Amino acid sequence: MANRQTPINADVVRRRFAASGLQDLGRASIRELKKLVDLIEADSGQEFVRMEMGIPGLPPLQVGVDAQIQALKDGVAAIYPDIQGIPALKQEVARFAKLFLDLEVDPEHCVPTVGSMMGGMACFLTVNRMWAEREGTLFLDPGFPVQKQQCKLLGHGCRSFDMYEHRGPKLRAKLESCLKDGKVSSILYSSPNNPSWICLTEEELRTIGELATQYGVVVIEDLAYFGMDFRTDYGKPGQAPYQPTVAKYTDNYILLISSSKAFSYAGERIGVMVVSSKVWAMRSKDLLRYYSSDQFGHALLFGTIYALSSGTSHSAQCALAAMLKAVNDGAVDFVAIIREYGEKARIMKRLFVENGFRIVYDRDLDQPVADGFYFTFAYPGLQGGELLGELLNYGISAITLDITGSERTEGLRACTSLIPRSQFPVLEARLKAFHQDHPIAAPVQI
């Protein structure tokens, strides 16, 4: 093992890790790991199979690009947009909610943000300050690591549990055990889930919604992967089936809708939050500790968003408005375009399994987990950090499940987006080399 030849010189990997200042590779953030791999690539001259970053691997919707270019030509770069968003975008977001979620929302409560990352931060800042006696957010894990980091930076408390073992009828009891002391102000999850790619059922969403109403908690539903459970086609405007949402089962909701994955428009950092009319109108005297108004919507707009960014890129709002209009009008089938991620996941998972790996989160209740933007994998005898360290020597990068709140510490998360099909032979060859260099012990015969 010590003298084996690997695609990436092991000394380069060790030297760069030592110089990185990282104490534990298994706890490295996504961006820290990206920087480390960038440096190893530069030193070694070898291209990695990059699976650590959730970056779209498809071209942006051209209708958005064209609209943004035209907006810039029209001079919007010199004009501050209103912090509540341009009217065209707000109207198209409300149409999108109706056509793809079967949900009636007030356009005034559709607010653009600098990506869903800012949307989440704005939610934590405002919702978690509505009740002084409450601690903060309950995360239904595994999840996007940076959202917990946001709470930590804000000094907010948070709770979490890995919901994989609490699916179906088990969810109600587990969720209620976390809510019954009255200390939770918000619940956050994504569905499809990053990283496990499980998708909550209507009954599970009903459970979350009913308990949110019962305990007066605001649900923050992160729809970053809108329509990406490719087992069902959610891409036909105004036609069932619709993207499942907790908003069908409670009025205590905020939806985060991103352009990054669904429309491949990540570079312009444009998303939107959709706030229910009930939450928008909520009043709490505890908001006056930080804001000029005790009304949630006013505090959110003129307190939080004003202070965070003074609004969202004017031209990017024009781009998103144009993309949503095309999708709403049925001129673009965005789900058909992004279905490529599921097709690539199917092939990649097969390559991993054929070379001794196993899929960690492999079941979605009573059926195999869907193929999509992410999947999870492990290798016998190695914990997540160890596996990641070894794979770097083979020019393969991913992130550990440790940083996602998962109880599966042996696993890694792979993103399918940045690997072109032309790189699949390279991935296969490197996985075969890894498998050959890491023989799996035969089970002990009793």
Folded structure, characterized:
With 446 residues, the chain is α/β, with parallel strands linked by helices. It has 15 helices and 15 strands. The chain folds into two domains: 135 residues, Aspartate Aminotransferase, domain 1, CATH 3.90.1150.100; 267 residues, Type I PLP-dependent aspartate aminotransferase-like (Major domain) (Aspartate Aminotransferase, domain 2). The chain has a seven-stranded mixed beta sheet, with helices on both faces. Strands 9-12-15-14 form a four-stranded antiparallel beta sheet, covered by helices on one side. The longest helix has 15 residues. The protein is globular, with a radius of gyration of 22 Å. The protein starts with 9 loop residues before the first helix and ends in a 9-residue tail after the last helix. 51% of the residues are buried.
In the predicted model, the low-confidence regions spanning at least 5 consecutive residues are none
The oligomerization state is single chain
Helix content: 25-40%
* C-alpha end-to-end distance: 29 Å
Number of helices: 15
**For the CA atoms, what is the radius of gyration?**
22 Å
CATH class of the largest domain: Alpha Beta
Strand order of the largest sheet: 2-8-7-6-5-3-4
CATH fold title of the largest domain:
Aspartate Aminotransferase, domain 2
CATH architecture title of the largest domain = 3-Layer(aba) Sandwich
Number of strands: 15
What does the largest sheet look like?
Answer: 7 strands, mixed
The overall pLDDT, averaged over residues, is 95
* Relative strand content: 5-15%
How many domains is the backbone divided into?
2
Structural class of the helices, strands and pairings?
alpha/beta
